[in-house]
Amino acid sequence: MVDSIQVEVKGVSPARTSGADASVSLLQVAADPVRWAVLQQLAAQPSCVCNLQEHVPIPANLLSYHLKVLREAGLVTTSRRGRWIDYALASDALERLHAALPGAPNSREARP
What pTM, to 2 d.p., does this model score? Predict the structure, then answer.
């Protein structure tokens, strides 16, 4: 089983902060071992919760919590398929994580 670590993010969504605070918050979200495992699974392919639970063996309520944190950070998107909700890595998730690293060029400055 993947263990989670406790990280205080000061109640600010990484998608709504700017500068260094946003980078730190985004990296804190991704650094949790459970959320990292979810991101790895979603990088391979979009999945529903039932498929994610096969690869990240934690109780359903905890998985839902971690998916909520990832959604609020803008790293994961959802789409409804009947009664199922599919989760996918956000199209800009890897770019945003890379840009949050120290020394990485600002992705907005790199764009024409």
Answer: 0.74
